[in-house]
Amino acid sequence: MLNRVNKVFIGKNISRTANVTVIPTTTANTIAQGEIVVLDQNKKPLAAGATIADANPIYIAEGLPDTYNIVNTAGTSITGIRKVLYSDPIDGNRIRAFSGRPYSASIEEVWTITMTTNFTPVVGALYKLRIVYGDTFEKPGQVTSTYYYNALTAFTGDLAIAFSALINADVNSRVIATSTGSSAGNQNGTLILTGKVLPFDRTDSNAAIDIYQQVNFKVALFSNNFGTSTCTMTTRPTPGQGIWQRVRDDEKLSMSNQRGPTNYTWFPAIVPAWRTQDGVINSPVGTYNVINIEHEVDFLSSDSQYRRQQPKMTTIYMFTGAEANQTKDVLAVLNPWMASVDNLNTVAISNLI
After folding, report:
1. Same-domain pairing of 279 and 168
2. Domain of 156?
3. Which among 79, 143, 153, 250 could disulfide-bond with 69, CB atoms 3.0 to 4.6 Å apart, if both were Cys?
């Protein structure tokens, strides 16, 4: 049994719809593609400032790319009805956490090899630089890359430049080498290795097979004629918050739960249109604020013999574009409602606006 089932909502960089409607009546609904709306227990837009006394439970809704047409019972044709993705009911008495984080860019890992004035290469001596990658594996152990260089001069600057050229010439290298501050004949060589942004050997898009990951590695420099040098991780890798690749992966992981299986009868798999603003066919590239709501819903066993509460996570990604940031509109509704939840004792999310 799943311990937690996520539902993911992805807002686009669009203007908000005045007097938005989600449920069609005699006309099509007016919710736009990528518009995020907070709804009351009747699935009608919740007013800003409403509390749990006014509405419980609430729902999160997103306008999807798909539309459809119907003929209602009165015989009226209604065209262009936008499909809507709904969250599970969010009961104020069963909310466990409410949090938000602003967009932050990812940072790649950096190692710096500093060769001090006490490090004097011996002409003709063999020097070996080994990189051990921790983010990928091969039997029977981790993936490594080793580079050899016979010193031609007694200057560390020359050594740093030589290793930089060897690493960058390797098509399988997962790092970028620079010898910033080093020059031929310089006795203070510094070699800087920076993890490449994956995937570095193919186009990254919503249709990419691999999930987002970062290069993780360690570095060591060896020689029988070794002086004073240090290999130090100078920048720790951070995956960022709200970058489009992570939003894409979240969308994929939640797709079968939110929109049903897509590959049981049709091959190749037919999938719904991607909602993430990726970095290949979309401009601008998607950057998102992130709102998380942890709550519980009733779970009934298949034989209807017992009922329990099932943990859920509702995640809302809100595009940060300057044209029309929906974050403040959504928080104007969510903040007062969450503040009225007795068991939460929450404060308003303000650092996203």
Report:
1. no
2. 110-235
3. 79
346, part of any domain: no
SS3 annotation, 91-157: CHHHEEEEEEECCECCECCEEEEEECCCCCCCCCCEEEEEEEEEEEEECCEEEEEEEEEECCCCCHH
Provide the Cα torsion 10, 12, 18, 21; round to 10°: -40
Top-confidence residue, 165 or 264: 165
- SS3 state at 83: strand
Query: Phi then psi for 113, rounded to 5 degrees?
Result: -105, 110
Query: 6-25 pLDDT, tens per residue?
Result: 899 999 888 888 899 999 98
Helix or strand run (H / E) with residue 335: helix 327-339
In a domain, 344, yes or no: no
pLDDT, tens digit (0-9, with 9 covering 90-100), for 124-162: 888 899 999 988 777 677 888 999 999 888 888 888 899
CB proximity list for 273: less than 8 A, separation 6 or greater: 64, 65, 66
DSSP letters for 185-253: T-SS-EEEEEEPBSS-SS--STT-SSPP-B--EEEEEEESS--SEEEEEEE--B--BSBHHHHHHHHHH
Question: Residue 329 has what DSSP assignment?
Answer: H
Structure tokens at 116: 């001090």
- Spell out a b/e string for 197-233, using b for 16 or more CB atoms within 10 Å of the CB, else e: ebeeeeebbbebeeebebbbbebebebeeeeebeeee
- For residue 244, pLDDT over 60 is answered with yes
